[in-house]
């Protein structure tokens, strides 16, 4: 049967180079107006009963090639369960195999969270009691920037995800977090805090199948010092809403290509760092590690030197601008090696559960103090 390779759908990304027998050569397409690329998502028709080998020939030139060693691609025949497949990386080529009886199979860098799925999330959460939905503005492609507000408490909490659209685990985290926030378990937190949620900061990049940028090729997490409607309306509108409410605690949810663990990064290099800010950041990480085996504090990024924080990044900007306890959460494209899952690796379900764990810890710190 003739093989057919297609990525012309929501969040899709791949380019067919050639097919030789059961070997398929591919390239990942760069983000528009950008050199970034690493996200892939495509389907294969005519795969039934064949042992296929897929080679991504330009993997060595991707944004984070050091993330490929130890990585395993995801495959699905129903677009619900995404299992890992045997994957190799050598000489700049990412290679993985597939054998199965399904007529159609999908492959992705991580389980996709498409804009259609995002629309389902918005419809589900907006219909629940106690939720206020707003469209903060629109993107360069004209898509809505969706926002939810929950709770009536004094402490202003902001949760936002997918500044980098290829980090789809971040919206699965939001899925779990929003389900918890709209459940009876959240009542104590929502009486002590008002929680503001932007589940997808980069709708255009998501739909276009980008790794890191919006429709203009802009990395949104380098725009928080001077966002503009021309380059980064997503940040412009969200930061304007933050200025309206103030920010006491913020969490920016991401995925990391190389480190096989969940970890947080902070704002220790900001000029106006206060001891109590740093203490609260450390306490959150310590409590989260005690709360769930899916989090640890040993692995992570290097700390910035005093006064050397990059204020174009949201975590640093919010800590400096508002005096907030501002946290970047990173989840792996690989697995959480301290407690690995050989079949699914780090997964949508574990991402959603980590969202719940983070809010349970925040509840302890804000409402239980």
TrEMBL record:
Its keywords, alphabetically, are: Carboxypeptidase, Hydrolase, Protease
Top-level lineage group: Bacteria
Gene3D superfamilies listed in its UniProt record: 2.60.40.3120, Zn peptidases
**Does the UniProt entry include the keyword Protease?**
yes
One GO term in the molecular function aspect is: carboxypeptidase activity
Which residues catalyse the reaction? 330 (proton donor/acceptor)
User: Mitochondrion as a keyword?
Assistant: no
Q: Which cofactor does it need?
A: Zn(2+)
Which residue numbers delimit the Peptidase M14 domain? 111-369
Pfam families assigned:
Pepdidase_M14_N, Peptidase_M14
Protein family according to the UniProt entry: Belongs to the peptidase M14 family.
Q: What is the designated name of this protein?
A: Carboxypeptidase family protein
Tell me the lineage of the source organism: Bacteria, Pseudomonadati, Pseudomonadota, Alphaproteobacteria, Sphingomonadales
């Amino acid at each position: 049967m003739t093989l057919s390779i297609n990525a012309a759908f929501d969040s899709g990304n791949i380019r067919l180079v050639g097919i030789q027998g059961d070997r398929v050569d591919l390239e990942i397409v760069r983000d528009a107006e950008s050199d970034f690329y690493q996200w892939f998502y495509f389907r294969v028709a005519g795969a039934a009963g064949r042992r296929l080998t897929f080679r991504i020939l330009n993997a060595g030139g991707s944004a984070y090639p050091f993330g490929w060693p130890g990585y395993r691609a995801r495959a699905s025949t129903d677009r619900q369960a995404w299992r890992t497949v045997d994957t190799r990386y050598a000489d700049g080529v990412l290679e993985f195999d597939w054998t199965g009886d399904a007529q159609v199979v999908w492959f992705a860098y991580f389980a996709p969270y498409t804009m259609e799925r995002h629309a389902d999330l918005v419809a589900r959460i907006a219909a629940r009691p106690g939720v206020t939905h707003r469209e903060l503005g629109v993107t360069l492609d004209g898509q809505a920037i969706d926002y939810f507000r929950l709770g009536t408490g004094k402490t202003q909490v902001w949760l936002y995800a997918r500044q980098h659209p290829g980090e789809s685990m971040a919206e699965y985290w939001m899925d779990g977090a929003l389900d918890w926030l709209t459940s009876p378990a959240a009542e104590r937190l929502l009486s002590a805090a008002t929680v503001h949620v932007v589940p997808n900061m980069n709708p255009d990049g998501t739909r276009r199948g980008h790794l890191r940028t919006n429709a203009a090729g802009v990395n949104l997490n380098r725009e928080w010092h001077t966002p503009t409607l021309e380059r980064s309306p997503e940040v412009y509108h969200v930061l304007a809403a933050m200025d309206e409410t103030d920010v006491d605690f913020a969490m920016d949810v991401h995925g990391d290509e190389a480190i096989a663990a969940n970890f947080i990064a902070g704002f220790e290099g900001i000029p106006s760092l206060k001891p109590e800010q740093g203490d609260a950041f450390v306490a959150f990480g310590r409590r989260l590690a005690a709360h769930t085996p899916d989090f640890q504090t040993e692995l992570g990024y290097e700390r910035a030197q005093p006064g050397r924080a990059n204020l174009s990044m949201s975590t640093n900007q919010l800590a400096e601008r508002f005096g907030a306890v501002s946290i970047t959460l990173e989840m792996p494209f690989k697995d959480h090696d301290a407690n690995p899952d050989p079949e699914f690796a780090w997964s949508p379900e574990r991402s959603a559960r980590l969202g719940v764990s983070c809010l349970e810890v925040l509840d302890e710190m804000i409402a239980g103090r």
